[in-house]
Design brief:
The protein has 17 helices and 16 strands. It has helices at 21-28, 43-49, 74-79, 99-110, 126-137, 153-156, 204-211, 220-235, 242-255, 268-279, 286-294, 298-305, 307-321, 341-347, 367-371, 374-388, 400-411, and strands at residues 3-13, 30-37, 54-57, 71-72, 84-87, 93-96, 118-122, 142-146, 164-167, 192-195, 215-218, 257-262, 282-285, 327-330, 349-355, 391-394. The strands form 3 sheets. A 6-stranded mixed sheet has the order 2-1-3-5-6-4. A hairpin with a 5-residue loop joins strand 5 (84-87) and strand 6. The protein is globular, with a radius of gyration of 24 Å. The two termini are 21 Å apart.
Length: 413
């Protein structure tokens, strides 16, 4: 990796706690990269007076920065937004747009062809301008942009012929994951979606597209691709395009949770604790959080309120913790029985199914295991575990460390 210790780079935006940019840029080159959160009224002063070499710009300031720049590239002017700022030879500020390259790269990765098709863009900020320009350059038949205020049934119904959908709004982004900017039911001709959100990794919009068998992609690939080009502008060097895939996989896996599913007593909590020890990540047991929230044990919750109440608490806890990043999550054995939990499990996690011989599963303290035949329960839940998981491991040894390492090998950590 090339070293550029003298470069002072960073990202400016309104809210940046969710940003992966420092990790991504660290994979491309060795230079300082800081996050600069600020209100809009401080942007101009910062650009003119702060000590930096180069910057990235994110929402909602991709248009805000433009009046404060001395030069703007023709492509950025054509798009109408800037996401990269560098110094000119005489110390002025130059604006570029590397999002165009990133968005184009993302479309190619997803295999989404917009030529001759109607594209609907949700959102009217700087990212929507990039999306529109890319679609027009790729010969889309029609490109329609609607703001969030126009995202109403009567408006959406007029675009039932939409074939490709771009979401350029922050709707569904951490910490407000689990919601979609639009129902895909409005678009019977839809072939694919692009969601520029990258945290969570699988947004609700992307999950809905996946469930319908559509082509889909979320924004991490775009983020990494545009960062590769921005890094080249920062340093004056070149980076092989093959690095985009490597960095996307590494950063994506590094920021995702590892979420464990499986029958009650299969070892999720024990193996989860070992995974946390081996990785240095925080371990979270959703059953323990439910007990903490309810103030009584799980058998007591079932006895006093029934299973439906417990499942409601379970979904609330899962929705809260599953959108976070880089955790080890152990879930209850029945978490897969509620369909609404499936997108929560998958939104920001790599899901491992721990499959253990049911003849050795303990029943103590497990109301469902005690009240049901385990063989019947296993047959009922097995297809659900397999539907939600990314991979399955046989928990065929009492060696907890060995089982944990099987999971880490699958994840690539």
């Amino acid at each position: 990796m090339n070293r550029y210790e003298t470069l002072k780079c960073g990202l400016i935006g309104k809210t940046l706690g969710h940003s992966y940019s420092p990790q991504i840029h660290a994979e491309f080159a060795d230079y300082e990269y800081k996050l600069y959160e600020m209100p809009e009224e401080e942007v101009g002063t910062f650009l003119k007076t702060a000590d930096y070499t180069a910057l990235n710009v994110t929402i909602p300031y991709k248009k805000t920065v433009m009046p404060f720049l001395d030069e703007i590239s023709p492509e950025a002017l054509r798009i109408g937004s800037v996401n990269t700022i560098t110094r000119t030879k005489d110390g002025g500020l130059r604006g570029d747009n590397t999002d165009y390259y990133g968005f184009s790269y993302m479309l190619d990765c997803a295999g989404i062809d917009v030529a001759g098709k109607k594209v609907l863009v949700i959102g009217n900020g700087g990212s929507s301008m990039t999306a529109r320009t890319v679609a027009e350059d790729r010969k889309a038949r029609e490109v329609v942009i609607i703001g969030r205020a126009d995202n109403r049934p009567e408006v959406l119904a007029t675009h039932a012929d939409c074939e490709v959908l771009f979401n350029t709004t922050p709707v569904g982004m951490y910490p407000n994951a689990g919601v979609s900017p639009v129902s895909l039911d409005f678009f019977p001709k839809l072939e694919g979606i692009v969601d520029v959100i990258y945290n969570p990794a699988v947004t609700r919009l992307a999950h809905d597209a996946k469930e319908r068998g559509l082509k889909w992609i979320t924004g991490l690939t775009m983020l990494v691709a545009q960062a590769k080009m921005a890094s080249e502008l920062f340093t004056g060097g070149t980076i092989d395009d093959a690095e985009i895939e490597r960095v996307t996989e590494k950063v994506g896996n590094g920021m995702k949770n590892i979420l464990l599913v499986g029958m009650p007593g299969c070892g999720k909590s024990t193996i989860g604790s070992k995974l946390a020890e081996l990785t240095g990540r925080t371990f979270v047991d959703t059953d323990a959080l439910i007990v903490e929230r309810a103030g009584v044990s799980i058998p007591e919750i079932f006895a006093a309120h029934g299973e439906a109440y417990f499942r409601k608490l379970e979904t609330e806890v899962l929705a809260e913790v599953s959108q976070k990043s880089a955790l080890i999550l152990a879930t209850g054995g029945g978490v897969v029985t509620r369909p609404e939990n499936h997108p929560l499990c998958n939104q920001n996690s790599i899901v491992a199914f721990l499959n253990r011989d049911i003849s050795i599963l303990p029943k103590d303290g497990r109301p469902i295991s005690q009240s049901r035949d385990l063989g019947e329960l296993y047959r009922e839940r097995l297809p659900l575990y397999r539907a939600v998981c990314d991979f399955e491991i046989e928990v065929d040894t009492p060696d907890v460390t060995a089982n944990a390492r099987k999971i880490l090998d699958k994840v690539g950590l």
